Amino acid sequence: MSSNDEGLTGRGRVTVFAMFGAVFGYATHHLDDRRIGEVAVIGPLSPGVEWPRLWQMARTCGRPAAKEAERAQWILIQATRSFVCGSDRIAQFEDQGWKLEPGGKRVSFETTYANRDHLWTGNLTVDGLTPDQVAERPSLYRARLGCPEA
Questions:
Q1: What is the 8-class DSSP label of residue 102?
Q2: DSSP strand E in 30-68: where?
Q3: Prediction pTM value
């Protein structure tokens, strides 16, 4: 686990999905041209929502004794659920630009999890999204998570 001090820019498949009212983006990044050692990049897209909310959700919804790697797996499985099943999916792009801002958190999995070796979270932007696509949505679970109302 480490801080993401330099940020990251990429282009590729992006899934935009809602979770507990906030809108998040999920992209994949390859560490080199071999396209192995994939990184899952996940972050909030809703204005005013910061990346620690993902970790707050994982602490609240996951196993109470879970360590950071298990919380990272919980975050990744929520994004994967939207990509694979379409759960709360707002948009799906095959070739879209995205940017992970400096700051955030990186977690390496001990063994590959859901075909990913790392999870990088941080504040994210995705090219071409409209204000309606990134606006927070009503959610029954916001109060349980201690999230502010939009």
A1: S
A2: 39-44
A3: 0.84
